[in-house]
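Troubleshooting entry. The earlier prediction with KG4 gave an output that would not parse, so I re-checked the input for stray whitespace and re-submitted. Clean input:
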Amino acid sequence: LRTIRILGIETSCDDTGAAVIDDQRNILGESIRNQLQYHQKFGGIVPNIAKQHHYENLVPVVAEAMNNIEWDSISAIATSIRPGLIISLWQGVNFTRQLLFKYNKPFIPIHHMEAHALTVRLTHDVDFPYMVLLASGGHCILAIVEDVDKYYRLGESNDISPGETLDKVAREMNLSEHPSVKDLVGGAAIEYLALQGDSSIFNLITSQYSAKSKDCSFTFGGMLSAAKRLITKHQIKYDSSMLNDQILKDLCACIQTSVVRHIETRIHRAILYCDYRENLTWRKTLVLSGGVASNLFLRKRLKDLCDYYSMKLVCPPPKYCTDNGVMIAWNGVERFRRNLGVISAVDEIIPEAR
Ligand code: KG4
Ligand code: ZN
């Protein structure tokens, strides 16, 4: 029996990633390039800049992932086709199309969020079904993963994502100038400064997300607005003449706690709901993924919650929690060995933003 080997390609946002993985869970090659630095001064991802960098990065990234691997040994190519920045997705899809023709390979279209949800099965022994929280700069989704292609959606964000919330607060506070965190992304900068902050100094609880609805959907807009109002009112903005940045650290602790508590309450509800619904069988494992999942305060709070309900908390290593080619290749393996959605009609590939 020939082993399955999949080349995975990821270009849905600002990372160009590629990897080759076999069905024995060996990562045979991987490569990633990020372009965040070129977008930072614009305060968000600029589509045309993303396009240009993906275009320049795809050839070297795929070559690096394929280093010492024969094209003949590749069973199929898997590429993210949704959701994401449409202009970025097109770069990956067009490049993939060239490879498919050149090497005559089948194609596995990948849903980027499915890939995030399945990555854990590459790095850990986790069986279906399990609960997964995907919390990143672009998403906040809580679901039960019932099978490779079967999801029970418990809740998602009604407005912005937790990562975006933290990034916007960090930007308002001018943290990219702060010497101790200037090289960190928003959420990580807040996590670092929050270590020395007191979260009880401010209250960011707004009626919007406190009591009313009892479902598992998320909302972060209210706490973001509340944080912005505090920043304006108390002038909580970093500048180099600042003598004491304690108030800054306190607000970091406060916004981090608000985000984490909110996520915690929704997961708590989800656990109770799944226990209650008999036909929703699951193996009592919670998986965390996405950039925000690398937050240690979040992990600690969810670990305590999981311990209480005798659940296991599993987090893939941070570099596989964020966007990368490995998760796409792995999703390709999971689909290819079950013959799920493997196609050959290359001209039918149309990426979609959502
Ligand atoms: O998954 P990711 O790398 O990219 C996508 O959004 O797809 O997630 C990036 C997000 C950013 O909003 C960043 O601020 C946040 O993850 N993040 C964190 C931490 N590290 C990254 N948020 C909280 N704590 C962290 N340590
Ligand atoms: Zn992602």
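This one parsed fine. Residues 246-276 form the longest helix (31 residues).
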